[in-house]
Amino acid sequence: MSAAPDGKLPNIKFDGNAPKLDKAQLEFMKIIEQQNLVRVEKLQRIRRNNLITAGILGASVLGIYAYSMLSVQQEDFLDDFEEPKKVSKQ
What we know:
The protein has one helix at residues 23-74. The chain has 90 residues and is mainly alpha-helical.
């Protein structure tokens, strides 16, 4: 569909002779709409659970990394390392 020169989409005029939907078609549309709402709710729940899992895993990784850096920083066994004095043999 092409836009009008002023950037707006053209107006569509519906003909009053459009076929009317019968009761069975309307019921079918309601059933499909209900199934679609259930599907969307399920996908939203899965997405929320995935985000929660990602957050927990990310926090765990950052916690392990921070703990590792802190524990390595506190080690001081190499700070007092002195070379053994050489014993001269006479």
